[in-house]
Amino acid sequence: MNVRPNQDAQIVFVEMVNRRSRVAAFGLLLVVLLLLVESTFEQTQPRLSSTAEFTALLKLRSSLGLRSKEWPKKSDPCWFWRGVQCRNGRVVGIDISGFRRTRLGSRNPEFAVDALANLTLLESFNASKFLLPGSIPDWFGERLSSLKVLDLRSCSIIGPIPSSLGNLSNLNALFLSYNNLTGIIPSSLGQLSHLSVLDLSQNRFTGPIPSSFGSFRNLSVLNISVNFLSDTIPPGIGTISSLQYLNLSGNSLSSSIPAQLGDLDNLVELDLSFNSLSGSLPADLRGLKNLQKMVIRKNSLAGSLPGNLFPALSQLQLVVLNQNAFTGNLPDVLWTMPNLSFLDVSGNNFTGVLPNFSFNANAMASVFNLSQNMFYGGLPSLPRRFSFIDMSGNYFEGKVRDYAPSNASFGMNCLQNVSNQRTLEVCASFYAEKGLTFDNFGQPNSTQPTTNGTSGKSNKKWIILAGVLGGLGLILFLVLVLVLFLCCRRKGVTSQRGNGVGPVPAGGSPPPPGMPINFSSLGEAFTYQQILQATGDFSDVNFIKHGHSGDLYWGILEGGVRVVIKRIDLSSIKKEAYLLELDFFSKVSHTRFVPLLGQCLENDNEKFLVYKYMPNGDLSNSLFRKTNLEDDGLQSLDWITRLKIAIGAAEALSHLHHECNPPLVHRDVQASSILLDDKFEVRLGSLSEVCSQEGDTHQNVITRFLRLPQ
């Protein structure tokens, strides 16, 4: 009766035994495989064999305040310490990039790396983005003889570069950018014959570029941008035949561009922007046959572009020559270059009639900026494939065709069917000076150049007119002398009576329609694409604060220049606010006001103003500041600095009240309006509310001088 259940139980028992046997066999196989892998790993990655190096690593771990998560104390560094690289049981590489310190270590971070001196075979040390406040030790160049890569980017390092680094004969790459290094660049760095990358950008170096840099033979990247370097560009740099990337932008380099740079036939990118270079663009640069990017914006270069320069540069993709003083015609070859997709020649004195554009398939992503020059004649044909094209601020005439791209800007020209154009008088005068006929905005009686047949009658009219104007001018001159005499007589009385400043009006008035703003004195005309790129599409990371006249964002321009950009939404802010500020900057120039680097006014609903970045923020944030990110304690500004700030603010307001004509009132003086540069010098901001004083200053000039009742 119970035979069947017993048989089933036996079958289940056998299956369980077989399953356990298979599991045990699999576990045994896994153990064997792990032992084999461990044995193989031990052969390729042996444990740290040097007791002295293990002790040095423990000291380094302690002095830098590294966490057990990255460097566990009781495990082998070669196997388990993150960023430690070993070879044959010896330490050859350390990478602590982006590590976080312990809470105790973050209270007083220092450049405490003395233990590295005992790692005699160390080839690479990378501490980028790890806070190391302090100076680079002199012994680096004496004790780390095997070092090939030294990366100390964004470490808050101060002081000079020790000249002993020139003794690191095996060094291949030296990265010291984004620190606060000062002093001159030591010429001993020119001894690093194996160096292929040298990045000293975003520091505070002064003095000239060492001429010893011409001794480099393997260098492919040289970046010393955004410093305070002066003097000339050493011609010896042109002998570094291996150089591919050269960036000297954002300094105070002067004189002309050395013709020897044309010998760098392997160069791919050249950036000399934001300097004080003068002279012409040397034709010898045609030797840069592999050049893809040429950026020489914001200098004092002049003259015409060499006609034989660009035909040889067939690889060019980006050309930026804006904010110089170039003259003459643009070479026609620029419109047919096969790879060119970005051209910015704005803010120069280029002239001539443009040919019809003829571009390749890359034109779909092309950005061309020809604004603020003196081009004239009819508009060339403009393909719709442009990403953006700016033709504003020239003297083009005729009509804008219906097929013109919608993302093109044509303001401040002499065009017929576009708003915001120059006046008839300005356009007619420009074309008359060139002996050309202006189309009079499509109306009859267009202006004609002067002909010989009417020269006799015209001369008589001019003689009569000159006599009448001369007599009126003499009378006005005598009246002016009389007024000045009376003014001097009553100077003492006037000063005693004061300016008679009355109440401040509720709002400033925009500049009169008859007095257009001088945009040439307002810095660079940026494109909307440049603004988006600088601010990361106005990301939240770049957001600073909401201002009463617009939102503020920090950004970085193409040349690495740090800026603050005000985003003005005209749907919520009056148009007069930004016009008043532009009018102020076009008329008032003083070191105590925040520098306006440029503007972007091409959008109808949004306007953008670009200011110089102030490293120490505003007074409200700098008066009391945290000593570091992890500490809650506050450090107060010393009284000498406070007095310096007070004097600076007083000088700014004094200039508005007493040196401007008519006197101006700021109307928004508060701690957040007082901006501070890297030396705590005051740069007064929040200038959108500035307006002229009411009261006695608005009386009739003659009445004020004579003190007559109105």
From TrEMBL:
Keyword DNA repair applies: no
Keyword vocabulary terms for this entry: Glycoprotein, Leucine-rich repeat, Membrane, Receptor, Repeat, Signal, Transmembrane, Transmembrane helix
GO molecular function: ATP binding; protein serine/threonine kinase activity; protein tyrosine kinase activity
Topology within the bilayer: Single-pass membrane protein; Single-pass type I membrane protein
SMART domains reported for this sequence: LRR_TYP, TyrKc
Glycoprotein in keyword set: yes
Span of domain Protein kinase: 538-710
UniProt cross-references to Pfam families, sorted A to Z: LRR_14 (PF23598), LRRNT_2 (PF08263), PK_Tyr_Ser-Thr (PF07714)
TM regions (residue ranges): 462-487
PANTHER family registered for this protein in UniProt: LEUCINE-RICH REPEAT RECEPTOR-LIKE PROTEIN KINASE FAMILY PROTEIN-RELATED, PLANT INTRACELLULAR RAS-GROUP-RELATED LRR PROTEIN 3
Name the UniProt record assigns to this protein: Protein kinase domain-containing protein
Record organism: Vitis rotundifolia
Lineage of origin: Eukaryota, Viridiplantae, Streptophyta, Embryophyta, Tracheophyta
